[in-house]
Specification:
Elements (H helix, E strand, L loop, with lengths): L21 H11 L4 H35 L12 E2 L26 H5 L11 H22 L1 E2 L8 H15 L5 H8 L15 H6 L1 H14 L5 H12 L5 H10 L6 H9 L1 H12 L7 H13 L4 H8 L6
Antiparallel strand pairs: 1-2
Helix pairs in contact: 1-2, 2-8, 4-5, 12-14, 13-14
């Protein structure tokens, strides 16, 4: 056996599929074919259960990786760049480990603290409510600055300016003060559009806490917007099954979905029962059986497809429609 000299190139990683919302999944199901409310509800609940299992598996894998990372021995290199808290306030800190002064921000660009504090000098006179919010943001920024001042590297040196700005921006974003100026104005403006859509079928929190309520709410929204229709589902099933199945089989299938035939549809199926059974018998067998065993076989075939007993007897006996 010979092996190629050139190693095989690594396979390109697959792109992660986007996680569709429950509404888009439902519309995708309905775009392929008509669904009954009961059938679509079962599919959506199954999708939510599958998503919950995947999220639980990812969370368990992340916890396992974190435990393995903590269990690994230190190599002495990563620890030198990991920020740590300085000594308590009542313990004297050596002068060599005193944090250096933070560099001044460049002209025309605000530092991370100024961006995330929620204080904007240009909008200082916007009103009493906004001034109070700005004062609260400044207090929070001062508290975060005190915490960052207490962080040093393992070597005792102060944090680099870029690392300090990154930590400050992350803490501001997590505190909810990192809104851009345009978004902050829109949030406080009286003319800002409502964030909640009346037609929205649900949110992720309801899908996690009560999946059945979320699915029922979505189904009501789909029915109200004509995406979901039991009448269209019945019509599509009748058109798809009438060529190869009898009226009894079609009624049984619709009953599993909690639906029934309309009187006009039932009358039409009864009128065409013999013609449909004869057409199916002609395609399957083509001629009248010579012995009773073959006739019984043909009769069982048509009866299993849901045709009425008198229709089966006439078709197997070779009668013609009159």
């Amino acid at each position: 056996m010979s092996f190629p000299d050139k190693p095989r190139e690594p396979r390109t990683a697959r792109r992660a599929r986007p996680c569709l919302s429950l509404k888009m999944q439902a519309i995708g199901f309905l775009s392929r074919r008509e669904h009954s409310r009961q059938e679509l509800r079962a599919k959506l609940l199954d999708s939510l259960r599958k998503r919950a299992r995947e999220d639980a598996a990812l969370a368990a894998a992340a916890e396992e990786l974190a435990r393995e990372a903590q269990a690994q021995p230190s190599n002495g290199i990563d620890d030198a760049f990991a920020p740590r808290m300085a000594a308590p306030a009542d313990v004297a800190v050596p002068a060599s480990r005193a944090p250096a002064a933070a560099p001044a921000p460049a002209r025309g660009r605000k530092s991370g603290r100024e961006r995330g504090s929620g204080v904007d000098v240009d909008r200082a006179d916007a009103g009493g409510a906004r001034s109070a919010a700005s004062g609260a943001g400044a207090s929070a920024a001062a508290a975060r600055s005190t915490v960052l001042d207490a962080l040093t590297l393992a070597t005792g040196a102060a944090l680099p300016s870029r690392l300090r700005e990154s930590l400050d921006a992350i803490s501001d974003a997590s505190a909810g003060h990192a809104l851009p100026a345009a978004r902050a104005d829109a949030a406080t403006s009286e003319d800002a559009p409502a964030a909640v859509d009346d037609d929205a079928p649900g949110d992720a929190e309801l899908e996690r806490t009560d999946p059945e309520a979320a699915v029922d709410r979505l189904l009501d929204w789909l029915a109200a917007h004509k995406y979901l229709s039991d009448a269209r589902f019945v019509e599509s099933r009748v058109n798809a099954r009438s060529r190869k199945q009898g009226t009894l089989r079609i009624k049984m299938e619709l009953s599993r979905h909690g639906l029934a035939l309309e009187p006009e549809q039932a009358a039409t199926l009864r009128e065409t029962e013999f013609a449909r059974a004869q057409s199916l018998w002609q395609r399957k067998f083509g001629e009248v059986a010579a012995d009773p065993r073959q006739r019984a076989r043909q009769a069982r075939f048509l009866a299993a497809r849901g045709f009425a007993a008198d229709v089966v007897r006439r078709v197997v006996g070779g009668e013609e429609e009159f």
